[in-house]
Every structure is written in C-alpha cells, then in structure tokens.
Write a structure and sequence with these properties.
Low-confidence stretches: 10-24
Strand order of the largest sheet: 1-4
Helix content: over 70%
Largest sheet: 2 strands, parallel
Mean pLDDT: 92
Shape: globular
Length: 426
C-alpha cells in the first residue's frame, strides 16, 4: 500500500488519523495522557521560574506596575507618575497579581512571588499546547496533534521565554491564535474581537493585521465589515475605558511604537547581520536608511502575503500566512526585538497540523533553535555582565542572523512549491 510513498509520507499516512490499536481508545485516554504531560511541562516551568529572576527591566516593570495599580487605580495609572509603555490589556492581570500578593503577604524577593509574576505566561504556554491538540485532532488525528502539543509545551525555546525571561508573549498569543483559528472557521467578526484583545495586550498584534484585512476583503460583505469594525471598536473602548481617556491610551500606543528608534534591538535578523544592532534606524544603508528599508520591506511582505492568501483556497492558508507574516516582519523590518519571533513557533506547528509535511517541522525546529540562541544570549549578557546590547559583530549574532535568512529562503521556496503543486502559479 505504501510502495509509492516516501518513508515520511508512509509514517504520516500510518499515524495521521489514528494509530492502529489506539483507534478504539476513547477521547478520555488522550486527554488523560495529555494533561499528565502538560502538568509535567508546567511543573518544569514552575521550578525554573524560581531559579532565574528573569529579564530585569521586564520583571521590574511588571512588579512595579502591579503595585502602582493598587495604589492609584486604573484611572490614574497612565498619569505619568511612573514609566508605563504597555497598553491596558495586561494591566488587569497585573492588578490581580498585586492583589493576590497583598492578600498572601508575599515578600517581593520571595520565590513564590517570582513564580506568581510569571504564572500568566506559564499557564498560557500550557493552554496554547492544549489549543494545538484541540484544533489539530480533527485535521491530523489525535495521535499527531498529541505529539505536536507536547512539541510546543516541552520546547526549550518556549520554556526559556516564559519561565526564565519572564515575558508574556504566550499570553498575548492566546487571543491572537484563537482569532486566527476563528478566521479559518469563517467566524470573522468574532475573530476581530480576539485580535483587538491581543492588540490591547501588545501592539505587536499589528504585524498580523493584514491577515484580518485579507479575510474581510475575501468575504466581500459590507455588513460583515461593518459588524466586525463595530465589534472591534467596542471591544477596544470597553478594554480601555477604565483608564479614563481613550486619547491617553492611543498616546501610549504611539509612544510605544515610536520608542527605541533603532534598526534592530537584539533581534538577530537581516539588519543585525548587516551591523545594525542598536544602530539608529535613520543611519543610511546603501540607498536608504534602515527605517526606509524597513518600510519598503513591510510593503513587500504585505504584498506577498496577499498574493499567497488570495491564490490559495484551502483552510491552511490562514496558518501559512500567519507564519509568513510573523517570520518575515521579524527578519526584515526595523525596530524588532529578539522575542518578536515567538508567535512563529506556534503558527508553524498549527500550519503543520493542517499540512503535515516534514519541511514545516524543519522550519519550526530551525526557528526554535535560532530563537533559543537569540533570546538566551541576550538574557545571559544581561544577567552575567549587565550588558543590554549584544555587540554588533558578535559571532553568534552573525551566525544566527544568517541562519534565519537561510530559513526564510527555505520557507519561501516551500510556499512557491505549494502554489505550483496546486496549479495557482505557472
């Protein structure tokens, strides 16, 4: 039966829907095993979260913001009394953490409080893994989706970002991932609500905004566009109104996106490879400044993403384009931070569940490795040497940046092959 299949394709066909001997096992069997492994993954995170303080400026901000919220409330939080460059979405979580710390009378320097500060991201890691299983079990079968969920939950790069660094990228990714899934299910208006929730947490949600624009254009429905817009605006207003002034919140976004005007901020991408790490984005590089090249790159990325999206007719195009946007903007745009690649680690696995090809796993594994080295090196420089800027010509920086460029070329080649195989391009 497998005479004309490659070994990889034979394995996928064999295990893809149900592993023989396991087909008769109930859904409870998979849930039981999954939650055991996810519990282990959470336990590993909890232990590691207490061993390393995390990235000092991020952890200090989260702790300080949570206490300031309790002192002055939401309405005065953005009054300028303290530095605060995050939008209001995550402030609700930090207020809860601060209240819990006070209720338990936890010292600021205690291991329990450190784990509590990191807990939203740790739990989000686990929920994202569970989402991979839930979404993928019908597309690729319970066995494959089970393994993919574990691949995310036990990924050292994911653990590093939440448990050791202490960042909330996985918490931000939860509504974003839910929104992409709802887009693929043609529930566009509710997916817009999810996108706005992600935008309320981090402005990096703008990287994925073209995907929602494409989906609305594809539907060709004015009423759907109007309903989605109203739901999105309503969600943004409701999320922001406790902080009194919408204009103030918009100012926070403008300030955040206008801060750190550098070609790249420890993101091992094309600009880093060209010597642009922590170099002003107004400095000239060949014909244009780094900023100019960044904007040109964004236009080209959106054009390519639109071409891929409207040429493809299958459901996996949503996950493919989300992966493409995440990786491409990180690699070619200016003012990128080292952690902005994180969503790609999730979306490549989601794409794989709907199109189980080994090349997608190679991309996921490669990006996991480059992300781990990039984020790990930045964290080590800070914790060991109190140096926040990786030197421009650091060999690891150059090597990983070059590897990311090679991986992007491999991704583009895979997408072109897919389009050719579907007959959408000649």
């Amino acid at each position: 039966m497998h005479d004309n299949l490659s070994p990889w394709d034979a394995v996928i066909q064999y295990y893809g829907k149900e592993c023989p001997g396991q087909a008769m096992k109930s859904e409870d069997f998979y849930y039981q095993k999954l939650w055991i492994f996810l519990g282990i993954a959470l336990g590993i995170r909890l232990i590691l979260s207490t061993l390393v303080y995390g990235y000092p400026s991020d952890m200090g901000c989260f702790s300080g913001w949570s206490e300031h919220l309790l002192r002055v409330g939401f309405s005065r939080f953005y009054s300028g009394e303290i530095f605060a460059d995050y939008p209001p979405g995550y402030m609700y979580v930090l207020a809860g953490i601060g209240a819990l710390r006070r209720a338990l009378n936890l010292p600021f320097d205690s291991s329990i409080y450190l784990a509590l500060l990191k807990m939203p991201a740790l739990l989000a890691d686990i929920l994202l893994a569970f989402l991979l299983y839930q979404v993928g079990k019908r597309a690729s079968g319970r066995w494959v989706s089970f393994l993919v969920a574990l691949a995310f939950a036990l990924n050292p790069a994911v653990i590093l970002n939440s448990a050791l660094w202490g960042q909330i990228d996985s918490f931000f990714l939860l509504p974003l991932a839910g929104g992409v899934f709802l887009l693929s299910a043609r529930r566009v208006e509710w997916s817009v609500v999810c996108w706005v929730l992600a935008f309320l947490i981090k402005p990096q949600a703008l990287i994925f905004a073209p995907l929602w624009l494409f989906a609305l254009v594809e539907q060709k429905s004015f009423w759907l566009f109007l309903k989605s817009t109203l739901l999105g605006i309503g969600t943004f207003v409701l999320g922001s109104v406790p902080f009194v002034n919408i204009r103030t919140i918009i100012g926070i976004y403008r300030g955040t996106m206008g801060s750190y005007p550098y070609a790249t901020l420890n993101a091992f991408n094309l600009f880093a490879f060209l010597g642009g790490n922590w170099v002003s984005d107004t400095r000239k590089l060949f014909l244009f400044s780094y900023r100019g090249w960044g904007y040109l790159s964004l236009l080209l990325i959106v054009f390519l993403a639109a071409f891929f999206f409207f040429r493809m007719k299958t459901q996996e195009k949503f996950y493919l384009v989300a992966s493409f946007l995440s990786f491409s903007v990180f690699l070619f745009s200016h003012r990128m931070h080292e952690r902005y690649l994180f969503p790609a680690l999730f979306f490549f696995l989601l794409w794989y569940l709907f199109e189980p090809q080994k090349e997608i796993l190679i991309l996921h594994a490669g990006l996991s490795a480059t992300f781990f080295i990039n984020v790990g090196l930045v964290l080590l420089f800070v914790l060991l040497y109190e140096v926040y800027h990786v030197p421009r010509w650091n060999l690891w920086l150059l090597f990983v940046s070059a590897l990311n460029c090679i991986l992007w070329g491999f991704l583009l080649w895979q997408i072109i092959k897919k389009l050719k195989s579907e007959g959408t391009i000649g």
